[in-house]
Design a protein that fits this description.
By secondary structure, the chain is an alpha+beta fold. It has eleven helices and seven strands. It has three domains: about 1-100, no CATH class; about 135-200, Orthogonal Bundle (Helix Hairpins); about 210-350, Heat Shock Protein 90 (2-Layer Sandwich). About 25% of the residues are buried.
Length: about 350
């Protein structure tokens, strides 16, 4: 565009010939300033100087065309000097503005980077605060459970023993026999709840030995076959047989996987598909358990592994919390991904 402007101005300028009025030549000579300013604005100092030199070269033949007019010759020399002066000054100013804009952009980038780092540090502080709160709750729960073990389980055992003795006095067809069965069932349920509290407050440390994680998963799926059948849940297994045996606590892992699988089945009361997958990636054992339920809302997903959080009517809120502790004690991690309207996928990663 700059070259085109210079060419058009020069073509018109020279086409007028020597007979044209000097004023008209002067006006056309001033038009060279337009591409000079544009070149300086677009390309800075280099653009301004380059275009001004080009304009001076194109304009210089007028020194010879009007050599007979001393006044016009002086004016042409001044015109050439103005071309170079305007190109240089405008180029310097444009370059200064450009450099200043670049400094502002760099400062803005540094500010954005500082804001991002500050946000990351703030998130870490919130996570640390949440971990401290969880530690406080665990500490309080540990003290509470120690007293509960003696204050509840011992009398509960006596109650159950007395009910079993009374059970022998009634036949199954008597009306009171049904109430005795209810007493036994509810005492067992209460004992199970107390056991969950104790298991969470005083988690058992893993006893590592050669364990086939696929066999553990198969065992859990076998235990839940009846419940899955009642709910109309189909099971799909993708177990990697090349994993082999690894140093793990089979009993604790079965408990962890059982909690996840039971939750998945209960999340599909009208049927669905339970997918269990295992694999080994970069010396890390990976187990994925997914269902086709309604999914987990974002506000619940953040509290999913917190103790006492539950959405079930008769839940204690300790199942997934215990699972989290078991995986954590294996130096592993557990995470859950759930999109709105889609079932969640629980992923367990344990270094082996």
């Amino acid at each position: 565009m700059l070259a085109g402007l210079l060419a058009v101005i020069s073509l018109i300028h020279y086409s007028l010939g020597r007979g044209a009025e000097g004023m008209l030549h002067g006006v056309l000579g001033h038009l060279y300033i337009v591409p000079i300013i544009l070149g300086a604005y677009w390309y800075g100092m280099k653009g301004g100087v380059t275009v001004s030199i080009a304009a001076a070269v194109l304009f210089s033949p007028h020194l010879f065309l009007h050599w007979h007019d001393p006044y016009l010759d002086v004016y042409n020399y001044v015109e050439l000097f103005l071309f170079l002066l305007i190109g240089g000054v405008t180029g310097v100013l444009s370059q200064m503005e450009r450099n200043q804009r670049l400094r502002y952009e760099e400062a803005l980038q540094r500010l954005d980077e500082s804001h991002r780092k500050l946000k990351e540090q703030t998130d870490i502080l919130f996570q640390t605060e949440e971990q401290l709160r969880r530690a406080d709750r665990l500490s309080a729960l540990g003290e509470l459970s120690a007293g509960m073990a003696h204050e509840i389980r011992n009398p509960l055992g006596s109650i159950r023993g007395a009910v079993e003795i009374l059970k022998d006095d009634y036949s199954p067809d008597e009306a009171k026999y049904e109430f005795i069965q209810i007493l036994l069932k509810e005492s067992d349920r209460l004992n199970h709840i107390v056991q969950e509290f104790l298991g969470f407050a005083r988690p058992k440390q893993p006893e590592l030995h050669e364990t086939d994680v696929n066999e553990a998963l198969e065992s859990v799926l076998l235990l839940t076959t009846q419940e899955a059948r009642k709910a109309g849940v189909a099971t799909e297994k993708r177990l990697d047989g090349s994993i082999g045996k690894r140093n793990l606590d089979e009993g604790l892992l079965k408990q962890a996987f059982l909690n996840i699988v039971l939750n998945a089945i209960q999340a599909m009361p009208t049927g669905g598909t339970l997918t269990v997958e295992s694999g080994l990636r970069n010396n890390t054992l990976e187990v994925k358990i997914a269902d086709t339920g309604i999914g987990i809302p974002e506000e619940n997903r953040k509290k999913l592994f917190s103790p006492f959080f539950t959405t079930k009517k008769n839940g204690t809120g300790l199942g997934l919390a215990i699972t989290y502790r078991i995986i954590e004690n294996h130096r592993g991690k557990i995470d859950v991904v759930s999109e709105p309207g889609k079932g969640p996928t629980f992923t367990v990663n344990i270094p082996v």
